[in-house]
Amino acid sequence: MNSDEVQVIKKTWEIPVATPTDSGAAILQEFFNRFPSNLEKFPFRDVPLEDLSGNSRFRAHAGRIIRVFDDSIRVLGQEGDVEKLEEIWTKIAVSHIPRTISKESYNQLKGVILEVLTAACSLDEGQAATWAKLVDHIYGIIFKAIDDDGNAIQ
């Protein structure tokens, strides 16, 4: 990413990171509302959809998602940022491989992440494209780790 793109990401990120748990919860709630079968892969799968927002396990997971993105955004523009992003997201991917999450499910989440960020941050077309570029890069790292494992569901 060039320096202008990094600045767009860092500036617009200020909105969701200000309330990390609520921001992560908004993403996950929308994800499960649209694709409820994905709930089966999560530790709070026994919680009804309408009760998720108040569930402590759900909120903890939501907060962790935003923290990982925050760690990633903090390294953007620093020396070695590409390697640091690879390290952060490979670790996430490897930790999720035992859950046998399909690439389709990952892509469903990707779409929701971008839609929720676009709405929450009032992104214009250019800003949304910059975020899509970052998330595409992150997903490239995730899918490479999944493919390298050899046990992943396509």
TrEMBL record:
<dbReference type="InterPro" id="IPR000971">
    <property type="entry name" value="Globin"/>
</dbReference>
<dbReference type="InterPro" id="IPR044399">
    <property type="entry name" value="Mb-like_M"/>
</dbReference>
<dbReference type="GO" id="GO:0020037">
    <property type="term" value="F:heme binding"/>
</dbReference>
<keyword id="KW-0561">Oxygen transport</keyword>
<keyword id="KW-0479">Metal-binding</keyword>
<dbReference type="GO" id="GO:0005344">
    <property type="term" value="F:oxygen carrier activity"/>
</dbReference>
<comment type="similarity">
    <text>Belongs to the globin family.</text>
</comment>
<dbReference type="InterPro" id="IPR009050">
    <property type="entry name" value="Globin-like_sf"/>
</dbReference>
<keyword id="KW-0813">Transport</keyword>
<dbReference type="InterPro" id="IPR012292">
    <property type="entry name" value="Globin/Proto"/>
</dbReference>
<protein>
    <submittedName>
        <fullName>Globin CTT-VI</fullName>
    </submittedName>
</protein>
<dbReference type="GO" id="GO:0019825">
    <property type="term" value="F:oxygen binding"/>
</dbReference>
<feature type="domain" description="Globin">
    <location>
        <begin position="1"/>
        <end position="147"/>
    </location>
</feature>
<dbReference type="Pfam" id="PF00042">
    <property type="entry name" value="Globin"/>
</dbReference>
<dbReference type="GO" id="GO:0046872">
    <property type="term" value="F:metal ion binding"/>
</dbReference>
<keyword id="KW-0408">Iron</keyword>
<keyword id="KW-0349">Heme</keyword>
